[in-house]
Amino acid sequence: MPGKENTEKTDHSDAVELNVSEIKQKEVVVDRPSSSKRAGNSSRKGSNNGKGSGGMAELVMLNEEKGVFGLPDLMKAAAEVLGNGGLGSSYKAVMANGFAVVVKRMREMNGMGKDGFDAEMRRFGSLRHWNILTPLAYHYRKEEKLLIYEYIPKSSLLYILHGDRGPSHAELDWPARLKIVQGTAKGLAYIHTEFASCDVPHGNLKSSNILLGPDYEPLLSDFAFGPLINTANVAQALFAYKAPEAAEHDRVSPKCDVYCLGIIILEIMTGKFPSQYLNNGKGGLDVIQWVRSAISEGRESELLDPEISSTNGSLGEMEKLLHIGAACTESNPNQRLDMREAITRIEQVQVSGSDSVPHTRHAPTLKEGVGELLEGTRLESNVIRSRSGRLDGDDDAAFSIS
Asked: Based on the domain organization, do 320 and 185 belong to the same domain?
């Protein structure tokens, strides 16, 4: 049986000063303040065409609940490179008052005009859901697109599962894993409702794009970028194109997102890194075929991550979720679960018996906010590093835009 990857978190200790030229190369994320506060005084609220002192267009704020700031605040901030990915580069910046953000420089969006880009950003800014992460602000120039996000300190699902293997490693127990799967399904259902007109509503669902809040509540990021990406590069940039019908026949549909959801489920349940898919087909573990073979032989219990396999009274529910993951990754899209079927079956999985996944505060059920969807009317490895610090797959890093 395949073993765990030997991994560690990317070192971001070398901070640099963020200046105008670096803004063009960096991506910044923002901390969640406990209350609304002003991080700077140089942004223009709701402005699409304001100009800074150097003639550069200002940031456009989409969500002021976390603070208000402008390009001058970012240019004065201490910054560190987080990584590079298929869509661009990422940077963390901490402003003078301690307010931290992540700035993403989107190099694959330079073909879109200003009006179209502004419209898409306003659409993102209107979204509100417990399990999605939307931009706080953006910056547009013809040769430059910056998206500014909230910084999530706990990092991504990819890192939690595969990157933190040191003495301080905290095991991800079964209730937390189920919570992550169900929260991911909630967020994905919402995205499929809000972007129902898109061929692939999310388009880039993978463990590096699922960030985890303090209570392991998942936040989906980097979604619905398909219409924004330069057409010639969309298949290389978006993970949904790993689905067999997309990779082999260039046919995309919402079921490509279901395929990606299935990979997430199998990755969470087995604890194995799906290197065959996140390493661009360069070999490694084909977790889908491994799981399918074991299920056909009745060896489901052998698939489970040892960190959860001994959980009392939960084996049946874990195996149920494994079967859902396998059904989501059927190579024939006609035999694959659709989004409605997938989220309904995921919601039925329990920790054990009649217990439910504990929440520290109320989070919406799968049916809240996606009523039309459920009623049937609308329905890379970049953190995996060896001990030497070299990437074991792509040369993307933990917080890259990919």
From this structure: yes
